[in-house]
Amino acid sequence: KKLGIALVGLGNYSEGQLAPALQETKRCKLTAIVTGTPEKAEKWKKKYSIPDKNIYNYKNFDSIKDNPDVDIVYVVLPNALHAEYVVRAAKAGKHVICEKPMAISVKECEQMIKACKDANKLLSIGYRLHFEPHNMTMAEFGTKKVYGNVKKVTALDSQEMEAGVWRLDKKLAGGGPLMDLGIYCVQGCLYTLGELPNAVTAKFGKKDDPEKFKSVEQSISFTLHFPSGAIAECNASYADKQNLLRADAQKGWFELSPAFGYDGLKGKTVRGPLDIVNLNQQAFQMDDFANCVLKNRKSRVPGEMGLRDVKILTAIYEAAESGKKVTLKGLS
Length: 332
Ligand code: NAD
Prior knowledge:
Elements: E1 3-8, H1 12-21, E2 28-34, H2 38-48, E3 55-56, E4 72-75, H3 82-91, E5 95-98, H4 106-118, E6 123-125, H5 133-143, E7 150-158, H6 170-173, H7 177-193, E8 199-204, E9 219-225, E10 231-237, E11 243-249, E12 252-256, E13 267-269, E14 272-273, H8 281-295, H9 303-322, E15 326-327
Parallel strand pairs: 1-2, 1-4, 2-3, 4-5, 5-6, 7-10
Antiparallel strand pairs: 7-11, 8-9, 8-15, 9-10, 11-12, 12-13, 13-14
Helix pairs in contact: 3-4, 4-9, 5-7, 7-9
Nicotinamide-adenine-dinucleotide is lined by residues 9-14, 36, 76-79, 81, 99-100, 126, 128, 166, 172, 180.
Organism: Dyadobacter subterraneus
Domain GFO/IDH/MocA-like oxidoreductase: 146-242
Protein name: Gfo/Idh/MocA family oxidoreductase
C-alpha cells in the first residue's frame, strides 16, 4: 500500500515540484489537497483525480483527522504559517512533513516538535538535498576526509526576487534571503563538514531598492566558525544569481555549481568533473519519509534538525544586527 499525502498550500513548490514528484514515488501518493482557492481545487481535482471528500480548505482542515486516505500532511505554506498547520496536522493524528525553514522562531519549532511527539507522530523537514546524490557526495568527501581535513567551505545561494511577494514580508517569511536561501548554505556547510558551528559573524548587504526590501534584508554575508578550526563563508541574496557549495581541504578542493537546485547540478574536484546523475530529489525525500512511517523510524531530516537550523539562522541575524560574534551553544 502507498501512504496517502495531503499537500497543504498549492503554490509554486507544490504545483511545480511536489505534485509531479508524487507521480514518481513508490511508497506514497497524492490523495488530498488543502487550499483556500476553489479554482485551484477544481484544477487539481481534475489533474490528479482527487475525490471531493479529500479536498479541504483552511477552515475545515482539522476534519482531515477522520480521513483514512491521508497518512501524511505536507505543509507547503509561507514560513510564518508552518507552525500552526504542523500543530493542527499532528493534532489530527497525521505524520507531518514541513517545508523549510521549519518556522520563523525557535519557540515555534519547539512547539511543533512537542505537538508531534505528544501525538506520537513523525515530523520531518523538506530538506530534499539529503536525498540528492551530488550534495551527499560533498558530505561523503568532507566527512570521510577524502581530500584531507576541510579547512574552508564556501556556500552562496541567491535568486532574484520580484517585488510584493510574501518572501519580502517579514511577518510571513520571518526574514529575507537568509531564511529562504541562506538555510541551504547553512545546511551545505554542516553536511559537508559533519560538524556543528560554535560561533557566527554576519553582515547585511546594502539595499539597492529600500522600498522593495523595506521589511527584510536584500542580502547577507555570514561566517560560521567550527570547533575544528574550519570556517564557512556564506552569502544569501535576493539580487544576484550565485549557486555554489565548495570545500577547500588539505589535499585539494571539491565543489558543486549549481549546488542547490532541483536539477542540472554539476560537481567537480581538483581531479576533474564528477559524473553523478540528477535524480528526482523530492520523490526520494517523500519515499524516505513514507518508509520511516511504515517502519516507525525517525527521519534523517527530523524536526530537531529544522530547530537546530532556525537556532543558527537566529544567531546569524543577531550577529548581523549587533555587529558582534555570536556564540552558539548546545546545538545538536
Ligand atoms: P508560493 O507563494 O508559490 O505558495 C504559497 C501558497 O500558500 C500559495 O498557494 C498561497 O495561496 C498559500 N497561502 C495560504 N495562506 C497564505 C497567506 N496568508 N499568505 C500568502 N500565501 C498563502 O510559495 P512556495 O514557493 O510554494 O513556498 C511555500 C513554502 O515552501 C515556503 O516555506 C518555502 O520556503 C518552501 N519552499 C521550499 C522549496 C524547497 O526546495 N524545499 C522550494 C520552494 C519553496
